[in-house]
Amino acid sequence: MRVEEVEGFVGNYHTTLSNGEVLEHGVVIIATGAKEYVPHEYNYGKDPRVMTQFEYAEALEEGRINPEVVVMIQCVGSRNDEHPYCSRVCCSEAVKNALLTLEKNPRARIFVLYRDIRTYGKKEVYYRLAREKGVIFIRYTPERPPVLEDGFKIKVYDPILQDEVVIEPDYLVLSTGIVAPREENERLSKLFKVPLNQDGFFLEAHMKLRPVEFATDGVFLCGLAHGPKTVEESIAQAYAAVSRACTLLSKDGIEAVATTARVDERKCVGCGYCEMVCAYGAVSVVEKRGRRVAEVNPALCKGCGACSGACRSGAIDLRHFTDSEVVRQITSLAGI
Ligand code: SF4
Ligand code: SF4
Q1: Which ligand 2 atom sits closest to the C-alpha of 303?
Q2: Domain limits at 314?
Q3: Nearest residue CA, atom 2 of ligand 2?
Q4: What's the rounded Cα separation, in Å, for the pair 328 and 78?
């Protein structure tokens, strides 16, 4: 089931689902998650010995495999032109699975081929533990990535040995990144009038001051919809989003600012510039009496004045800050 149509604003949303059901709600929390990158590299999908970290952990836990030699390749499909960001969880996942392999088979030999190990925060402890237990980490560069050769051999250049190393593993495990479901996110971003970043994840209003909110009132976000993060971080963000949503839901009504924008429909030509510049999704161009004109939703308008400055027809201004009021203030100050 998916969201088909959204009408309304903070405190008064009407959302139509694909089964025809209409939900009435006051706030929205976007927690739509993300996807695992499906690799086309290293014969994935063709050779059953090539798997993702997720598949490898599952097979290991279920006792379907008991590997002696394992090669893990980091940053597969990540930190490249298509997905330039770090997925944040893959290095920790590789270290966790390396330790799990050693727990099941202490004689196993594990090679992690990496660009930079980013087991950030307290997970650094596990990285050290893996090294102490004999997991071998070999750095590679994007210009010289590991190569899968005939006979299931992995060839990689070791910058410390300054020579090529060839490993014959039982399994090749790919640390694949997290990617946004771009098409679906674009659809939702239009429905809820909230922005996406260049990677297709939802973009918060302010990284530090409003980390779980959008500029549009009443819409919040958490989890992988916002970008790659660990489960712990997703849970912390979910708590934050719920608590911000509750501050709105606990009120009897919504207070709007007094200086909202208003449209003079006789002057408006329906060009849509005001809609384009409004960061709060408060203006939309609608059909009225056979004409396209701008309409302001006072519940969403913050009175920032951006629309008023953008309108070339002088058709939109702010209550208590009309052009004539501002001109009169200036002339009286200047004593003209
Ligand atoms: S920018 Fe001005 S003319 Fe254009 S739609 Fe908005 S109010 Fe109307
Ligand atoms: S005043 Fe600001 S918030 Fe209000 S409609 Fe204009 S651009 Fe949007």
Answers
A1: 1
A2: 261-334
A3: 304
A4: 58
* Per-residue pLDDT of the chain in tens (336 residues, 90 and over written 9): 899 999 888 999 999 999 999 999 999 999 999 999 999 999 999 999 999 999 999 999 999 999 999 999 999 999 999 999 999 999 999 999 999 999 999 999 999 999 999 998 889 999 999 999 999 999 999 999 999 999 999 999 999 999 999 999 999 999 999 999 999 999 999 999 899 999 999 999 999 999 999 988 899 999 999 999 999 999 999 999 999 999 999 998 888 788 999 999 999 999 999 999 998 889 999 999 899 999 999 888 989 999 999 999 999 999 988 888 988 999 999 887
> Around Cβ 182, how many Cβ atoms within 10 Å?
13
The reply to whether ipTM tops 0.95 is no
Ligand 1 atom with least separation from CA of 263:
7
| Pocket perturbation via mutation, ligand 1, pick of 263, 264, 271, 307 by most ligand atoms within 8 A of CB | 271
Q: How far away, in angstroms, is 328 Cα from ligand 1 center?
A: 24
Testing ligand 1's pocket by substitution, the residue of 265, 307, 316 carrying the most ligand atoms inside 8 A of its CB is: 316
Q: What residues contact residue 285 under an 8 Å CB cut-off, 6+ apart?
A: 270, 271, 272, 275, 292, 293, 294, 295
User: Domain boundary residue among 225, 249, 273?
Assistant: 249
Tokens of 101: 């392999």
Residue 73 belongs to domain with CATH number:
3.50.50.60
Residues with CB under 6 A from ligand 2: 261, 277-278, 280, 282-283, 296, 301-307, 318
- End residue of a domain, out of 193, 216, 249: 249
Closest protein CA for atom 2 of ligand 1: 311
| Count: domains in the chain | 3
